[in-house]
Structure formats: structure tokens, C-alpha cells
Amino acid sequence: MPIKPPAVTGSSNIPVISGLLVAHYQDRVAKQRIHADDAQLITLQHLQNLLDQLLINIAYEQKSTLEKLLSKRPEPCKSLYMYGGVGRGKSMLMDLFYDACPVPQKRRVHFSAFLLEVHTFTHQCRQQDISDALPLLARYLRDYVRVLCIDEFHVTDIADAMIIGRLFSALFELGVVVVITSNRHPNDLYQGGLLQEQFLFFIKVLQKAADIIELQALEDFRLRQPHTHRISYCFPLDAYSNAFIQHHFDSLTRCALKESVVLEVWAHPITLTAAHEGIALSSFEELCVQPLGSADYIKIADLFNTVIIADIPKLTAAMRNEAKRFVSLIDALYEHNVKLICSAAVPITEIYTEGDGSFEFERTVSRLIEMQSERYWQSVK
């Protein structure tokens, strides 16, 4: 099943790695890959404490029965929920933790991709007449994952809210250590949503099972990154922007014919304006007005190394669904390191400023800006 990570066999000797995260952080600063920030260092110490406690617990579990009788059982590990503004370094700090963690049964995944896998698992269970898949999924995950890192945790849908609440409550009970990044405090995760009171039980469980840490860095560090000499975002929409899109498609495909391409995901079609050897040309209309979802965008991100999107409009409050799809699309392209070239009606910071979900859209703005940087273009596939 898609949610299963590579199987791990055998035991391993767990090293003592106290202070390792700060050392790795300072090494990145010395190499000018990141800028030093006191707030990040404070949050990093919480991650180091979690890592130390996790290894103490694993070392105890690996002792013989006699050794356990002669030693004190350590305190169980709490999970960690890290929140703060966009571009403050939450994902980077979690990656430092994940890379340094010597536990083989670990997984790092973007929340949208994880939620898609959960829906796939529950759908498969329904086909097998299994009515309650979530406890089964929690046990399945615990068999393969000891440490689960979830990036960009958010809740916007009542059905997802109920699934998330039950699944993560079960994972905590089974002893899975979960590290979560989010832009919102747990109390604000499902603010104003339908049947919000039914989600409150999960917030209470989360606050009991995890330390809630705010990353208080004041600056969006993505805005510091130098832009590439390439122009990859063109506005406003006019004859020049049309020529801009055509030029990039011709240049990247050596003037390939623009023929419509239809992809298929879960038995429904995705229509693109054109595609040629890793280059996809499409429009906002095709990708975000049509009723597509995370699975569709992940499929596109898997297939193409460069995506060209034409005619991104200024989004209004009435275009909330289109804005939500655009967020999912950019998340998928960003997580898969896909190059993005696009034309739009307004500057990046003005695409969606008012309406339901505009707070979450700030992350998309930050990512769009980073996707123009020289560092991003050098790192893409």
C-alpha cells in the first residue's frame, strides 16, 4: 500500500548524539546556506531534547529483561508540534532533526501527500467491507514507523478534521513519536469550521501528547534569497505575457507542436495544453478551475520537471475553491522540486489577499517567491 515505507529488519546500536543538531545548524550557517537566528536555535534545542529522549527510550527497549529490572524506565517521549509564520525555517529545522535521527523506522512526508494516502487506504478498506479503517491504519503505521514527521499540517475540511482527530489520537496511544510543522497554533487549526466542537477533542489530545512550540523568528527567510537571473514570473496579463509563455515553451521544447495532452488519475482525465519531454504547458483554467485535487497535482509533479502555467488571475473571495486548488498545486510542485514558469494578472503578493483561506495562502506566496530564487533553480530536478 502507498503509505508503507521501506521495511527495516534487525536492530541497530543507537549512538549518543547530544548537541548534534546545533552542530549541523552551525555548519549550514558557516557554509552560508542559512542565516543564523536565535529563535531557530531555541526551537532546535527542543528538537534536540526530543531526539535525546527518543534514543534513551530505544536504548532501554533494547536491554535484556534483567537489565530492565535493574534500571529505571525512562519517561515516555512526547511528540512535538512546531508552529509559526511562513518562511521562518520550520521545515528546515524538522529536516535537520529527521536527517540526524538514527532510528531506521522513520518517515518524513508533506501533510497533503499523507492525507491523500490516508484517503487511499480507507477507500481500499471500504472495498474490502472494512467499515472502520482508521484503527487498522494506525496499527499498520506503527508496525513500520517509530518517528513520523509531518510538514505543513493544516485542517480546512470537516471530513478531514474527523479523520485527522481519530488517526493521530490512535497514533499517540500506540507510541508513535510525531513531529509536526504548521503555520497555526492547534487552537486555530480549524477556526470557524463546521462542527468545530467535534474537533476540540483532538486538540486536547494533541496538547497532552505533544509539546507545543512557537518558532518566533520575525523574518520570512525565503525573501532573503537572491532571485535567479531568469525571469520566471511575468505580470500583468497582456500581449507581452502571452509571448513570454510561448517563448519559454518553444525554448524548452525546441519549438515542439502545442498539442493537447490528457493524463488519467483515478479514472478521471487531466487536460494540459501541451507536454513534451518533461515540460508541461497548462493554464490556470485547466489546473485550478477544473475540479482537480492533490492526487492530480502530485501526478503532474511526478511526470514533469518544468511546469508552465498561463493566465493566473487576481483571485477574489468568491474564488475560494480555485485558491485552495492553487495552494495544493504549488505545494506539490514545490515538494517535488519542479521548476515553475508562469504569467499572472498581478504580482505574487497580490494574487489572493482577501477571502477564506487567505491566511494559508501566505505560505503559497512565500513558496512562489522562493521558487524564483537561484538556490531553488539549482536544486530542482
UniProtKB/TrEMBL annotation:
Pfam families: AFG1_ATPase (PF03969). One of its GO terms (cellular component) is cytoplasm. The keyword Repeat does not apply. Keywords: ATP-binding, Nucleotide-binding. GO terms for molecular function: ATP binding; ATP hydrolysis activity. This is Putative ATPase. It comes from Crenothrix polyspora.
